[in-house]
Design goal:
The protein is an alpha+beta fold. The chain has twelve helices and six strands. It has two domains: about 80 residues, no CATH class; about 200 residues, no CATH class.
Length: about 290
């Protein structure tokens, strides 16, 4: 038996030690092993009839998985925050730790294939938008979850793929990921109490954040096309002072921050302080705190 295997076996045997100091030392060493030790922990859990030991193992696995999610999210941010769908997956991994990115990609690629067959460069911006809307909202039947709008599940992208229902941000993330994979310049626009998309002038893109917006898209309302006047009207209705940022594209980091804030609000409403605390940790990672 290798030295590392012997070390892990010794740690696992001490997991049910009644001495709290010993347990703290053991758990600290187990946490350092990362996700590789989870299968071993699960084996011990399955063989044990000790409720305290099982609870300790469950807590350790949860902590290891959450630490892994935090590290991956930080890596996504530090490497340029490019793949928006990947970040949405990492947020989902908090609630669904066994979720695999390939499962998300498999669902996404089915939609992408249908859109790719219809899109070509000769189409106008509005024609491309109509096709994306048809693929997402008619062919694949995605829609806004108006009956349970504040449910946290609406903010988990895997759940959106499964149920075909989401909130403005998750539906927007799906729309942006699909469009950008097809080289269509659609970006998110972060507004107070809302999230919409901007279709940029593809013939004049120097910097996405300094490019003219051709029109806006509401991902929560079947991809309805909007003009700047509708944005202005919405802000007036909500008694919100207009700002340039409410009309211009935002970064992927801002989108994921908005997604996390949604989850914080949902879990506060449901009374889950531990989940609120975890989400605030994820927010701080994205926010660079």
């Amino acid at each position: 038996m290798k030295t590392r295997d012997k070390h892990i076996k010794a740690l696992l045997q001490l997991l049910d030690d009644p001495n709290d100091e010993i347990y703290q030392h053991v758990s600290s060493n187990i946490l350092k092993q990362g996700e590789d030790i989870i299968p071993e922990l699960e084996k011990v859990w399955e063989k044990s009839l000790n409720a305290i030991l099982q609870e300790r193992i469950e807590n350790l696995i949860q902590e290891i998985q959450f630490t892994s999610t935090q590290n991956q999210l930080k890596e996504w941010k530090d490497s340029g925050a490019v793949d928006l769908l990947k970040a949405a997956y990492l947020i989902s991994k908090y609630q669904y730790p066994d979720l695999k990115y390939n499962d998300i990609l498999e669902s996404f690629n089915k939609i992408k294939k249908d859109a790719w067959l219809e899109i070509n460069n000769n189409l106008t911006a509005l024609e491309k938008t109509r096709i994306l809307n048809h693929i997402l909202y008619q062919l694949h039947e995605f829609s806004g979850n108006s009956s349970n709008f504040f449910a946290p599940q609406n903010s988990y992208i895997n759940h959106v793929f499964e149920t075909k229902k989401g909130n403005p941000i998750t539906l927007g993330i799906l729309y942006i990921a699909l469009a950008q994979d097809l080289n269509i310049p659609i970006y998110g626009v972060s507004m107070p109490r809302n999230f919409i998309l901007a279709y940029l002038d593809e013939f004049n893109i120097q910097d996405p954040f300094e490019t003219d917006v051709l029109f806006y898209i509401n991902p929560y309302n079947n991809g309805k096309v909007l003009g700047a006047r509708e944005i202005e009207y919405f802000l007036k209705q909500q008694k919100i002072e207009p700002q340039d940022s409410y009309y211009n594209p935002c970064s992927n980091i801002e989108i994921i921050k908005k997604l996390i804030l949604n989850l914080i609000y949902s879990y506060e409403k449901l009374g889950y302080p531990e989940k609120v605390s975890d989400m605030k940790n994820l927010f701080n990672i994205i926010n660079g705190v």
